[in-house]
Amino acid sequence: MKNLQSNALQIESLVKTYDNNFKALKGIDLEVKEGDFFALLGPNGAGKSTTIGVICSLVRKSAGKVKIFGIDIDEDFSAAKQHVGVVPQEFNFNQFEKPIDILITQAGYYGIDVAVATERAHKYLKLLGLWEKHNVPSRSLSGGMKRRLMIARALIHEPKLLVLDEPTAGVDIELRRSMWSFLESINRQGTTIILTTHYLEEAEHLCRNIAIIDQGNIVKNTSIKNLIKQLNKETFILDLKGEVKDIKALDAYPLTMVDSSTIEVSIDKNQSLNHLFSHLTTEGVEVVSMRNKANRLEELFIDMVEKNLTTNKVSDNG
Ligand code: ADP
User: Which helix (H) or strand (E) element contains residue 69?
Assistant: First the structure.
């Protein structure tokens, strides 16, 4: 792996106000180091696609600076563009064209000659498991294949930075895993990757660093490792044997009855589950199964978003 040194992406005080006066980005700062695998995470409407749109100039920013490998997009967009490949959420290729033609046409936009373009198109179609379909109209590809075609198209000019907007949204588990290993392999070979996601598992599995965006603000920017260290609470769902009317509350363990045979309980990092179970036994309650309510990162995320909402409310009133 390369040393994480220079910035692949640097965003300063980025503001986007849409024509209807809606402020989708409220002055965000973000740095992604060369070689990183970076997640931009946030709920729907947080501002992720807007940020990606600005980076690749699909969305005009209202204020702020964006530099790609040190090149200011306002000063030399065509030079900056050479370094970035973008995979947007929607399939935006001509569905009547064949995959091979889509890739060669795309290469033409970057001034790549046809012989090189053809060789690369073959390489990426094979790497992404699309070779068998290279010569059929792309509308006959499955959803997962279309998504992979978008990735191949984004890589055809061999950019140093690959930006993917929700690459695995609606993609089944098996394909998600194979897409993950493909992305991991090109990252190992030196491509910096930024992806937006609202699958926390995806960020946890793939990424080294993370920024969490909510309502147009970056609410957290740290390494995944640090983020996980900050987790101090886990919520479990317990399925009970039979129907239970009421369970005496325990101060140390906030219990909620979800229904007559399910309870939810929050446990701090330093608490043991033994005490809870002996209490339930005393109460005559039998637990038949137990699972996490959400994954750990999700718990933290929910907690942070709630806090951020509170902060926003305070500042709105002030
Ligand atoms: P995300 O990708 O995190 O779901 P987006 O960047 O798509 O969020 O959207 C951020 C906010 O900006 C949302 O509230 C969305 O409704 C709003 N928005 C997006 N595009 C436009 C637009 N063209 N005009 C007005 N508002 C928009």
Answer: none
